[in-house]
Amino acid sequence: MENIKTKIYKNKSIYNGEMTDNGIRHGFGKVFYPNGTKYEGNWEYGVKQGNGKITFYSKDVYEGQFDNDNINGYGKITYNNNDIYLGDWENNKKHGFGCYRSYEGDFYQGEWKNDKRHGVGEIFYKNYKITFRGKWKDDKKIGDGFYTFSDSETIYKSFHSPLFEDDIFN
Fold first, then answer.
1. Distance CA 53, CA 61 (A)
2. Per the CB 3.0–4.6 Å rule, which of 80, 94, 106, 165 could disulfide with 112?
3. Model pTM score
């Protein structure tokens, strides 16, 4: 394509990159938004499509796949506090299988739905040296699960009862 242009929009965002002859972002390009957010990647007829990198005004950085202007597919986000998520996305939310590591060293791998742990997953609590394996719904443990401690002792726990609602690891 190689039709590189710079365009300033009414909302004061600035685009520099490939465009169609009638001024539509298409191909590789960069856009700088007035709030400080920056996107660099592929465009298809005016929307983010394919691979790209977006640095949000909050300094969170996402690198991965986009579809129809949304974060969709596989990608990695590094949050400004150094938490990291690597995995599947749907409509700008963690959705599918993914791994999340907090800056404190806690680590979750498993299923996500609408930005929440949901389905089968495993979490390692670094400070407590405890691993939990089980089912999640809306970021809460449900059903049956297993805690494994650093000495390899494993304890079965059921989360059907309100007795465990105050579980410090929930």
1. 7
2. 94
3. 0.89
